[in-house]
Prior knowledge:
This protein has 1 helix and 38 strands. The protein has 507 residues and is mainly β. The strands form 9 sheets. Strands 24, 26, 27, 29, 34, 35, 36 and 38 form an 8-stranded antiparallel β-sheet that branches. A 6-stranded antiparallel β-sheet has the order 28-37-30-31-32-33, with no helix packed on it. A 4-stranded antiparallel β-sheet has the order 2-3-5-6, with no helix packed on it. The longest helix is centred in the C-terminal third of the chain and has 4 residues, at 468-471. The model has no long low-confidence stretch (mean pLDDT 95).
Amino acid sequence: MLVNNPIIRGFYPDPSICKANGKYYMVCSSFQFFPGVPIFESDNLVHWKQIGHCFTRNSQVNLHKINSSGGVFAPTIRFHEGTFYMVTTNDTYHKNFYVSTTDIYGEWSEPIFVDQGGIDPSLFFENGKAYFMSNGSDDDGKGCIFQCEIDIKTGERLTDSRPIWKGSGGRYLESPHLYRFGEWYYLMAAEGGTEYGHMITYARGTTPYGPFTPYENNPVVTNRNLGGHQSVIQGIGHADLVEDEYGNTFMVCLGFRQAGMWVPYHHLGREVFLVPVKWRDDGWFEAGINGTVEQVMEMDIKTTSAQSAMNYNVSSSTLGDNELRWVYLRDPKKENYEFIEDGIRLKGTTVSINDRDTPTFIGIRQSEFYTNLKVNINSNAKEAGATFYMDENHHYDLAVTNENNERKVMLRLCIGDINAIVNQTRIISEDDSIVLKIVSDPINYYFYCLVGNEEIFLGSAQAKYLSSEVAGGFTGVVMAMYAVSSKEDSKEYAEFTKLNWDQKENQ
């Protein structure tokens, strides 16, 4: 069947996949956002739904005042003897750890830490042994993959950590995953950095420790030599393999869609792509279309239903506190969020979305370039509104302010060190309802407010200033509602109702 990539759209990077009980499960990085590490489920590798998160309690992961694009990096999910394991890094604190569960729909355990450095940790189980690997540097300062054996019950190292592969020569060797197919052990990794030079490489050996011989045609998959006029899909890398029930092999990997053929910026974040794998008679494998990933690819997927993307549209008539797409910043105070009929009520604090802290903030990832957002707002807070947020230094805000006995709707653009109110309009009547409206295409965001029966255009802003190429970091844009109060423990609030956010792949 023809598969349309990406299979999970928007800011869901660093995918890892496993098969269990006749289904497939995938996890992705979450960085400074909470709950952490979203979990997806599929019957056929094409149609996915989110079923939960690995981190739902502050005791599982420390996100307090962490840096943006810090926190939870590159998870790996594995299933072994009835238990799911998810291993990851809290990069801010340079600690590798894992959690586990026997119920993929339920709560996960408290963390178990492993005394091995690096990032992008992974697990491999065989013959009663648990192998733990991560990236790092050898005694000469060169990148390599380290591996040790651990006690899976305690995380204690049972062997010294030793380098097992130094990659194929690309920079930033990372994302190690070990597999066994037949008589061979395959070690797959990412090189080149998670930008335009990203690539997937691998090697094989006859033991879990190698020695590993690199695939002669590495990288096995990359779009690094495809310019925007050839493909808007860039940054392909960080892959994980899975075998279906029919013996077919696939990889999931990250990539991103740049904004246009000649617009080398991406602000939706790194997304999940599905790639077919073909085994050769000599035991090596190839992947993709001549080693590249395309938007539409023919794959041997055993499903009778046509591919339909996850529903990324948002409506307050269907959203509530059980909506799994909601994300908060760092360690949220749940008492500041109250779901009401047809919306949500936010209690502000003095922490703003310009702070590296925990503001009152609740959002959903932007998954498409073309969007149309409308939400009614009723607020007596110092400031409350809708934001398209990359990080605390890069966001566009359409907000209602209440200061000096004046109520206004303002458009503020925050781009690095420039934080400016570029337009605002005063609301004369206290009885006027206010609707915030934001429309986007691949190049721009457009900001409006509706006061009574009048629509007021407040301005536009270029999407590229929220892109990773400008803002840096590893996340993507999140559309959020937020509130800021004039003082702590105030009774200031903001109610957001009749929220509708349509996201479309094309105009």
